[in-house]
User: What shape does this take?
Amino acid sequence: MIAAQQPQSCSYKQMLASERFHYGVEVVTSRGLPSPAKGSDVAGTARELLAEPRVGWIAVTDNPGGTAMLPPDWLAALLPEHRARLVLHLTCKDMNRNALEAAAWRNGAEGFQNVLALTGDYPTGGFRGWAAPVFDLDSISLIGLLHSMNEGLQVPGRRGRIETLSPTDCFIGCAVSPFKRQEAELIPQYLKLVRKVEAGARWVITQLGYDMRKFHEVKLMLASRGLDVPVVGNAYLLSKTVARMFHGGQLAGCVVSDELLADVEKYAAGPDKGRAFFQELAAKQLAVFKGLGFAGGYLGGMAKPDTFVKIMEMAEAFGPDDWRDFIKEIQYGQPGEFFLFEHDAATGLGDPARLNPDALLAMNRRTGGREVTLGYRLSLLAHRWLFTRGRGLFGPLQKLCARWDGKPGPAGRAAHWMERRAKFLTYDCQDCGDCSLPECAYLCPMTACSKHLRNGPCGGSNDGQCERGDKICFWARVYQRMKYVGKAETMLDRPTVFHRGELRHTSAWANRYLERDHQAGLGAEDGAGDKGAAGAPPADPPAAEKPAAGESPVAAPPGAKP
Assistant: This one.
């Protein structure tokens, strides 16, 4: 171990790179002007936290729950002397890509380098009605933008030349939500986490839950893919009210099980209203994070600074091996919850050398299921022969589109009219002009996903349902369809999709044939699962191509055993 340092002497980046465990605290701004007289002196609270020796950093949320609040950079501007110890959340729900880029430039110009890139919650309120969500980018494409800015963003310059802008130095973070009950929710979360790191994320923070096995599984999954990035564990100081909200799915990505809620209700009925239980639970979680080798522990909740410090002191006061007992104690899982790794009875944790055999069987089973419809099978066949470069009718249709493109006349208008009607009836198409049906297993993200996500799931689903509660999670459906063609575990192994808004209400077919959509210049085909005969599952791969027993493309640790 290296010699201990005062947190104030380290930047957040240095903290995560060190061998010392550091603590962070969540700070939430307010809706409306801050008023110390009403107890909403957010800046004062932030300064008080940063003055505490045990607090390494603070993170400022971006409109949690989707409501309108003072933005993170407002608070950051009041704390310029602590810029290296501030983490600003940046979400896609309220800003398009230009506004996100502008926000990143502003943060970089003012020296605020630590950013947690998030898709964001669906907006749930606003003046005289709910705000219209944006989601022009998602977390992966936002990370891609920030990474490109770090490399020196290339933009059109004068006289058509490409100009390279001055590079930024953004320390990009991402989130993952392992607290999913169903296989079809959890595996896409892990797949997207891998893509986030590959896109440029340099640190990871978990979403909220109360099963230490799930926290540990994130580290196991990253290690199995050879991804050595620091992970920060997320602990939240519960109350009875907040626990009920988490249990009811009212805050996306935050999970409280039936068993934990029962304990919350029991302790909350006591004379201290459960405060001792809640604080001890958070302290034990922090102790487990430290014992498991997490880079830090992030503590959230509505409490005064001295309460947060008290919890950190409790965590430090435990015996050196107490965390091992806490692992078995804090296992508030959900019935039938899906785990990727088999658990060791002695430790209560996942065994890095033993993938869950039931999980492997489930992931590798090519089943039909209700998502594999006749329409999906016909779509696979149509894409193979109509829209796959070098196959079938792609060449003749490409020449035909080039002949009609940009010329007035009934032929082009009739073709677009026919396309709109056919795709609306088949896919509920919204005529976006830049189609992602092939990448999304022929489900339209513009209609079937509340956030129009084209690069994988958000973290807001709850027991297979969209965070809005009005539909099945879009990417869980995509996963089930991709299983049918044997591509579930590689469904995100493709270039990041940046939807081209300028193509709206133009022919997606013509844009595909004439290289104007997001696939232009990529060369390789999409991972849509266009192999195999329509109407029947594709044949199993040859034995030499099959994963070895106990292995999976999602997590294939060296020496894995069945």
The chain has two domains: 7-359, 369-539.
